[in-house]
Amino acid sequence: MDGRGDSGGSLITLSLMPALLRQEDFGGLEVAVDERRARRQLRQQIARLEAELAGLFGEAFGHTEVPHRVEAISAQPRVLDLGELEALRDELADRVAEARQALVERRRAEEEMQALVEQMLAAPQDFKWVRISREELGLPGCGHWHSRPRLGPIGMLMGWWRVKVSSGCPLPGRLAAVEHEAEARGEAGI
Amino acid sequence: MSADPANRMGWVPAPQQGWVAPHIASEFPGLGIAWVEVDAKPGRSPHPVRRRLRDLSDRTYGAQAIRLRERPIPWAYRVFYRQIGLDPDRTRTAIEQLTLERLEDGGFRTHGLPADALNIAIVETGVALRAFDAEAIEGRLCIRDSAPGESLAGAPAELAKGTLTIADETRPLGLLFGATGEGFAVERGTRRIAVAAVQVKGVPQIAVEEALWMAAATLEAA
């Protein structure tokens, strides 16, 4: 359809098309670029990206570091122009992409570790002395899985291997006792 | 503004609405400023205010701090900081700065009045508040950009053209989310305090009113 049969606006628009291709005719066509509208659009995009980045930051906290910083454009508050808003939007979009990538990589690493723990549990003798912490699986707490022989050297010689699951975080009292012991040793010059 | 008994919200004065320069308002719909004035002097916070700060400390945890930027009001301020060229991880929003200090110090430390009153209201509502010496303000407060040749009182350098400021009808009182000009901050000789709330898009009017009410009530009760 060439549009010539349309009534009203479409016909006018198409009849102006050749003129639009000539830069010098822009003024005559009274085509004004509404920068304010463009700035508003960019501000909306910035708001959306900031929300997304905040969500990724919260999700990643304690698991992995995600890039989330975007440097200030101005030392003092002011209305940013179109170019500055565009640069800010692009920077935020980059940070969101990088943060998402960092989270994907972290999740992949955690899944690999999870698979490794399952393999270790199935065949501990194939993973001698391998130790995987809960942190590596993205789990809270201080425990770990450790492939080690039963009965020490005898188990090593006999090939009796097992995965030992640690009992979690040390209690504060035990930590304090270790500190006191270390202090006492220091004082005694041991 | 005088404390006209008819113009009061409960036992604190009703907030007054300031204005925003039209070209700034058209760029930032939702931007606004409101303030209340109370007869109060700076000084040591009384026991109930310090107890309130301790209660707030007990209710504020690290996990909340991490998720703070996802909550609607703190997020709205972060977005606005970005939109005016600031980095909210360097020039922190009021609520994020207070939460960070709470985590670093192990509690909200008392800084006397009016700071404690403002801090309680900021932590409770998330709204950004500022205090000025009300007797130094001429007319209504507004948010506008600086005119050529203008500077903050006491600052040696001129403000860059277009810098966003909180101003009265004659001059800028301070930067929007920044330094306060000399003579406008609450100091030892202040007898009347203006508490101003900067509202940005996404911050509900009710939250602004609650923040102003809370700060004013704390100051008046002290």
Task: Please provide a written account of the structure.
The complex is a heterodimer of chains A (190) and B (222). Chain A has helices at 9-20, 35-60, 82-122, 153-158, 172-188, and strands at 131-133, 144-149, 161-165. Chain A is mainly α and 190 residues long. Chain A has a domain at 123-190. Chain A has a three-stranded antiparallel beta sheet with strand order 1-2-3. In chain A, helix 2 packs parallel to helix 3. In chain A, 15% of the residues are buried. The radius of gyration of chain B is 17 Å and the shape is globular. With 222 residues, chain B is α+β, with helices and mostly antiparallel strands. Chain B has helices at residues 22-27, 47-59, 62-67, 72-83, 94-105, 115-125, 205-221, and strands at 8-9, 12-13, 16-17, 19-20, 32-39, 128-133, 142-145, 164-167, 172-175, 192-199. In chain B, strands 3-5-10-6 form a four-stranded antiparallel beta sheet, with helices on one face. In chain B, 35% of the residues lie in helices and 19% in strands. Chain B has one domain (14-221): Phenylalanyl-tRNA Synthetase, Chain B, domain 3 (3-Layer(bba) Sandwich). Chains A and B meet through helix 2 and helix 3 of A and helix 1 and helix 4 of B.
